[in-house]
Amino acid sequence: MFLTGFDRGKLYTLAYRRSDGAELWRKEAPATTIEPFLKNEGSPAASTPATDGTRLVVYFGSYGLIGYDMAGKEIWKHALGAAKSFRDSAAAALR
Fold first, then answer.
1. Which value, in Å, is the radius of gyration of the alpha carbons in the chain?
2. 64/20 Cα distance (integer angstroms)
3. Which among 15, 28, 31, 57 could disulfide-bond with 24, CB atoms 3.0 to 4.6 Å apart, if both were Cys?
């Protein structure tokens, strides 16, 4: 089972064994800036990982896309920079 997580200002991809829930691996995303977020509406790790059974792809709005193999080895990454939302643009316009 694969999840994304946010803890102490860092973003993670996590893998757990289905049979007993043991954590198999944890990889930190190389985000340098965390996107703005409202704690009561979600977190910067709110996206869902996707897999084809051989590879895993995760997206973090604060970084971009990262591809892993099933053992947690990074295969590729594509930085997109911190995401900007309509709410961010509207708040900036009101300042």
1. 15
2. 31
3. 15
